[in-house]
Design brief:
mainly alpha, 0% strand, 412 residues, 77% helix
Length: 412
């Protein structure tokens, strides 16, 4: 059993958690808004990528394995970049980092509008998507966690609601663009829109001012101390096991729906249903983490996720996919919300971004293999059944790891 009781809820220094005068606007909400807008654009566009599969298959004859490689490699590279982005966030602040990564992320989609070879798709999508993914969580959520103490869970949930709104709205808009203007123009429009919105979102992002009393450092162990704890490695390996599902299902579920008879618009609706219910999952888990602690939050996320994967494995009628997508969305959204508050609960804020970056890296290693493995399984068997079965097995192992944690008595 991992000793979860070692985790603490040590409050932030007073300068970070001073209440605003009654009736006054709290400027910290601009940071939450900017972080949410960053999540909205980056993850919304990632979700829409699967809608291009059928178009690229028809025009170039590329296999699902090839089409999935970009996503797999992007999430692997994301993990490496997340470690650096976490360290850079503590040194330079989030605004400069997000301005640079937002520019490169948008440029990547513009370049994709001109591809003619499969290697170009894999290389460009891998590189530029990874740059956006490497900064979108670590730099935004770690920044928000520094500004909020007692409401850290719900504020994280609000930021991740931006992700769900992007998943809800961007895929249907991209589906309309593809049908109306073709896939090349759609990639270009996504690139320009991404770049502009990410610039605007980066403007309010900043770290809290340093305390006047430099002898009052942020709470918690150093990164070197944190990584010597069992709780650190338990969170890393749980992330390694469940994160493949969070990457693979959004990448393949739209084309899976088309395989079962849905047209492009109705297949895109699967992504919207997932996103809509993930909003509920994010807000619910964010609230419960503040009240019940992170261990309970993980359990409430992983349980519906596993059930939905079993349902995906068994469903053969396309209309039933929407029910599985709703259940999956709750677990999907919650798991993207629970990680940052958990790290703050366990290790405080002293090395939050650095610890977060390493946990994200472990998730990215698992996530990198998921989409490409699912594509290969489809190419070999003509079905995603065994892919969903494997994901369900990994998620179950992650749940067992979380169950091995002792509840934190301070979180009740």
């Amino acid at each position: 059993m991992v000793d979860w009781s070692a985790c603490s809820r040590t409050p932030l220094p007073a300068f970070m958690s001073q209440p605003q005068p009654q009736g006054a606007f709290d400027p910290r909400y601009l940071i939450v808004l900017g972080a949410g807008a960053t999540q909205f654009m980056i993850i919304g566009a990632i979700f829409a990528y699967g809608l291009f599969f059928s178009e690229l298959e028809r025009e170039f004859g590329w296999s699902r394995t090839v089409l999935s490689m970009g996503t797999s490699f992007a999430f692997l590279l994301m993990g490496v970049l997340a470690i650096f982005c976490g360290r850079l966030n503590e040194r330079f602040g989030p605004r400069k980092i997000l301005l640079v990564t937002g520019t490169l992320y948008g440029l990547g989609y513009i370049i994709l509008s001109r591809i003619t070879e499969s290697w170009e798709l894999v290389v460009y999508y891998t590189l530029f998507s990874a740059i956006g993914l490497g900064s979108h969580d670590v730099n935004t959520l770690s920044t928000v966690a520094r500004w909020f103490d007692k409401r850290r869970g719900i504020m994280t949930a609000l930021v991740k609601t931006g992700t769900a709104c992007g998943q809800l709205t961007i895929p249907p808009l991209v589906a309309i663009l593809i049908v109306t203007f073709g896939w090349r123009t759609s990639f270009a429009v996504m690139g320009v829109a991404s770049m502009v919105l990410l610039w605007i979102a980066a403007i309010p992002m900043r770290l809290p001012p340093k305390p006047a009393n430099e002898a009052a450092p942020l709470s918690g162990p150093s990164f070197e101390e944190a990584r010597r704890t069992r709780a650190f490695w338990t969170l890393c390996f749980a992330q390694l096991l469940f994160f493949p599902t969070l990457v693979t299902v959004p990448t393949h579920i739209a084309v899976h729906g088309q395989d079962l008879g849905l047209n492009e618009a109705r297949a895109a609706l699967l992504l919207s249903v997932t996103a809509g219910l993930s909003i509920l999952g994010r807000l619910m888990i964010g609230t419960l983490v503040d009240r019940l602690g992170s261990r309970s939050g993980y359990i409430l996320c992983l349980t519906p996720l596993i059930i939905s994967l079993v349902a995906y494995m068994l469903i053969t009628r396309s209309e039933l996919l929407y029910f599985a997508a709703a259940l999956y969305g709750i677990g999907h959204g919650g798991l993207f919300t629970v990680v940052s508050p958990t790290i703050a609960e366990c290790f405080g804020m002293r090395a939050h971004a650095s610890v977060f970056g390493v946990v994200v890296f472990f998730g990215s290693v698992g996530g990198a293999g998921g989409p490409i493995a699912a594509g290969w399984i489809f190419d070999v068997t003509g079905s995603y059944t065994w892919a969903f079965a494997g994901l369900a097995g990994f998620a179950t192992l992650a749940l067992l790891l979380i169950l091995s944690l002792k509840p934190n008595p301070q979180s009740a």
